[in-house]
Design brief:
The protein is α+β, with helices and mostly antiparallel strands and about 260 residues long. Helix content is about 45%, strand content about 20%. Strands 5-4-3-8-7-6 form a six-stranded antiparallel beta sheet, sandwiched between helices. A two-stranded antiparallel ribbon has the order 1-2. Helix 1 packs across helix 3, helix 2 crosses helix 3 and helix 5 packs antiparallel against helix 9.
Length: about 260
């Protein structure tokens, strides 16, 4: 056991770097250098120096046309890898496997990376012929159930900006390519905390998803399933919601316990 006299100091350069990263990563929007300094209790010149180091390593970046700070590509990739590893941990993965066996359908856990869903973990149900998203596979946000969860978490102004710049390509018979139609669907997901897709990625496959949230309520991933529409109609997907939400809560608890 480490005594107080042997405890590691908490005001070392690494601590300050991590504090800056934590503040920027948890900010709802891009944040100014002054606000970071205030949140960290550090002088602005010190924060300038720390931010310069983090920018050089692509952990932070300046928002285009602004001096405000946001997370950089390297930090996004690190966070994605960390959550993916946590999702594939023994307990989280076993919960996913148990769900797949219980409902008899393929189950996936996905995270948002830019305009795509990155599948961090998956479990195969032997009898199912649904769309199986293997670990590492990526799919667009706008046509997947998990992707719609992440779109619904955007503040309305950010979602409108995204919608105005997104390219909605038809991938299957029912892919939503109308911005107005997608807006309506995302608003419904935002209200119901439940998303579904009706042959929007591939013909003959429907799916649904529920959120996985951290202790603060932040969406960290989506838990989704894919089902052949010949066996389960789109309107019948709601039967999976309760077991999926229970599994999502277990996975969230397992991740929190592992921290």
């Amino acid at each position: 056991m480490i005594s107080d006299s042997q405890a590691v100091p908490r005001d070392q350069p690494l601590d300050r770097l991590l504090h800056v990263l934590d503040v920027v990563a948890h900010a709802d929007r891009p944040i100014t250098m002054t606000d970071v300094a205030a949140a960290c209790g550090l002088p602005v010149p010190t924060v300038h120096r720390l931010v310069a180091q983090l920018e050089e390593r692509r952990m932070l970046k300046r928002v285009l046309g602004s001096k405000k700070l946001a997370v950089g590509a390297a930090l996004v990739n690190l966070g994605m890898a960390a959550v993916s590893a946590a999702m594939r941990g023994d307990q989280s993965h076993q919960i996913l496997v148990a769900l797949a066996n219980r409902i008899g359908e393929h189950c996936q856990i996905g995270q948002r990376v830019d305009n795509e869903v990155f599948y961090a973990d998956a479990a195969w149900a032997t009898r199912s012929q649904g769309l199986y998203f293997e670990h590492g596979h990526r799919s667009p946000l706008y046509c997947t159930s998990i992707g719609k969860l992440f779109l619904s978490e955007m503040p309305p102004d950010q979602f409108e900006w995204w919608l105005g710049h997104a390219v909605l390509e038809p991938l299957a018979p029912n892919t939503i390519v109308s911005p107005d139609a997608l807006r309506k669907v995302v608003n419904k997901v935002r209200k119901e905390q439940w998303a579904a897709s009706d042959e929007e990625v591939i013909a003959g496959v429907v799916g649904c998803a529920v959120p996985i949230r951290d202790a603060q309520g932040k969406l960290i991933a989506g838990l989704g399933i894919s089902v052949p529409s010949a066996r389960v109609a789109f309107d019948g997907l709601a039967e999976f919601r309760q077991p999926m939400e229970a599994a999502a809560a277990e996975i969230a608890a397992a991740i929190a316990a592992a921290d």
